[in-house]
Amino acid sequence: MEGGNQTDTVDAADPHASDDVQELREKLQMAQEELEIVRARLAQQLEQEQLAAAGEAAALAEQLKRAQQTAEAASLEGAEQRRRAEDAASQLDQLARENEELQRRVFETEETARTEVEATRMRLELERLRQLEEVRRQFDKERDRYQREHDQDATLIADLRTLLHDSTTRRPTDGTERELPASSVSVPASAPLHGGVEPCEPTEGSWVGNRSVSFTAGTPGVLDPPVTQADHTVDTSTLTGGPLSLVGVGGVASATDHNVADSAGRNSSCSSSSSGTGDGELIQQLTQLVQTQTAMVAAQTRAMSAQSLPPIPTYSGEGEEGFERWIDQFEERARLAGWTDDLRSYHLKMRLSKNAFQTYRLLPEEVKANYSATVSALKSKFKPIDIEELRGMEFHQVVQKGQSIEQLGLELQKLAKRAFPCLSGKDLDRLLKGRFFQALLPKWQRKLGAPKVEESFDELFNRARVSERREQQYSDLAEERKIKDKPRKTDTDTSRERGSGSSSKTGTGALSPNNDSSSDKPPRKQGQGIQCRACGRYGHIARNCLQRKRQGPEAPGRQESINPKPQDSLQVHSVSDCTDKELEQELSRRRLDKEQKLADVTSPVVNVVTGAIGSVYQLDVSVEGLAVSAIVDTGSQSTIISRALLHKVFAHIRNSGKVPPRLQEPCTKFRGKGGKPHTNYCTGPTYP
């Protein structure tokens, strides 16, 4: 009511004010109408947006569903792949076991085969010895038989020569015919009387024959009837004036049907000359017979000598044996055996093999028909090769490939002795030294350096072997450490504490660029070399310290030392192994020596922290009276510190104006192992 009265009062007092109010009311109504329209539009727009959002939500839900299905399929596929990987691993294990079993069987088979081969070899050797013994016995038997036959032939030849000599010396010289004393002559039944191989054999017995032969008196120098012996008929004629006179004056030499024994004389002969032949022809036949027997005996002797010689090996035309040396042995054997040129050609052909036989087959037929021409052609085909020249080339081409230095040196010494047998002393030593150094690998040449003039081959060889053994020892040591340094599972919080303890909690400096520590190198042993900063003990960190939990956060070990003792700021307590596998072995040896020297000094100040960034050596130092932990790095040329430590340490210097405000320099953001920001560090020259 009061409001209404006031309005009326305003209207009464000022009629124009009522018009304004009315106008305002109209405007307000219009604004309300517009507001309703806007509300309706907004409601419609909101409804549309809600519908669109609902559609998008449905689409997202559908996408999420498909993603879930894809994830489930990927999970199933991953499970299937893991199952396949496990199956493959089991198959590999099975194959490894089968391989081991196969190797064991192969080894057993080789041992069995080696044993069987050895037994077979022994059996064959015994069989060969038995055969050789049998051949030797047969040879001795044949030799004895040949010796007996040789003795018989020699006796026969001697008797024939004696008979021939006596026949020529008993010729009558006074021109009278005298009676020939009956002699006992034994003619073998198998020997012909004329033109045969063997003559009659004179003995001191009776005339022994298949038929009786009689000598009757009559015309001097006539034998009647004809002499028959072993179904061979020989016509006799007058034998006067010859060396073999069988008829004497006034006497008769007769051989009746029975055996006649007469020991009155020895000088007689078997007359087997044909009709019309003289004494000279008979003597010539006897001489030829003696020569034939002598040649047969000599041939038998040569055959026996040839059989006692070792067999001639075949010639293949390969290897180092020359044809001239082989043909000399062949000729000596052929000479002892008495081979003719035809036999030599035959045996030469049978003793050629491989390349030599192929070369022989390609020779012209007219050359192969002549033994001497064949030998000359083969000599021209298989000319002797300069073996020493080839060995010298082999000596100068030797280089170190997969063998060790000791094997290389021994091989060069062996080749030098074969290629240069005339060299000795200093000349051989100088040659070996130069060639040995040239044959070494480049890395050994760099390590050994050029050999000195006064250095001998043995000294250089020993120096190279020592260097190789040293590198092998370092390689074995590095391999052993690599096996010991395999990654092991550690606590996640402990690793995070170790990784951040050098920056966010203790304010340590980061690693310098030339630090050898690896960011992903695991610790050798869990808890080794770790010192608690709350209680000072080893084996755990401050977060897990029970004493700190009992005493509160302000443990004695965490209080900052304003004025540390100088002698405590540069001492080392323990060092963990930190070997870079990519460095050379020589650098590894030097680093190991340096670490060994550091390990000899002990102090409870310097710690080894192993975390996400690897093993680092921390040292408590004093910076402007503030005790901080720094990383030991003797090779760094600049220092990297955190911004918080920089502001904390050098705040009073910056405020005093002694040092220009250089703290606004760009800072570097380092990231940790997991990719998250580690902390911000300002880089630049070290402040005093």
From TrEMBL:
Q: Name one GO biological process term.
A: proteolysis
Q: Which SUPFAM superfamilies match?
A: Acid proteases (SSF50630), Retrovirus zinc finger-like domains (SSF57756)
Where is the sequence biased in composition, kind Basic and acidic residues?
13-22, 167-180, 468-499
Task: Report what the protein is called.
Answer: CCHC-type domain-containing protein
InterPro entries in alphabetical order: Aspartic_peptidase_AS, Peptidase_aspartic_dom_sf, Znf_CCHC, Znf_CCHC_sf
Compositional bias, Polar residues, is annotated for 560-577
Which ranges carry the CCHC-type domain?
Answer: 532-545
Q: Where is this region: Disordered?
A: 1-22, 71-90, 167-205, 258-278, 468-531, 549-577
Q: Which GO terms describe its molecular function?
A: aspartic-type endopeptidase activity; nucleic acid binding; zinc ion binding
Q: Which domain of life is it from?
A: Bacteria
